Amino acid sequence: MTSWNPNFAAAxxxxxxxxxxxxxxxxxxxxxxxxxxWNVVVxxxxxxxxxxxxxxxxKLFGYPKARAEELMLEVHHKGRSIVWTGExxxxxxxxxxxxxxxxxxxxxxxxx
Length: 112
Known about the structure:
Blueprint: H1 6-12, E1 18-23, E2 27-32, E3 38-43, H2 50-61, H3 65-78, E4 80-86, H4 88-100, E5 104-109
Antiparallel strand pairs: 1-2, 3-4, 3-5
């Protein structure tokens, strides 16, 4: 039986994408890139009931009724509302789930 190698465990951990910049005076520096954030945007439509949109926001995102109503009213009055922001894969899932509830939704990248 072989002994435990701590370097082996470190090799299994996921790593963030890094870029290396080389400067002749300072040597090499490493910079970690942050993952881009994405907004889930719900768009207004003239057919869907406001109470239904509120219910979907509560059920899908776990928002309390007051927050869900606030977002629903923003969709109603402004034509759109950012209902969630985060990593792309999860944002895509939320957009797909909103579509399954027959709500108009899209994904938008966050500019930093």
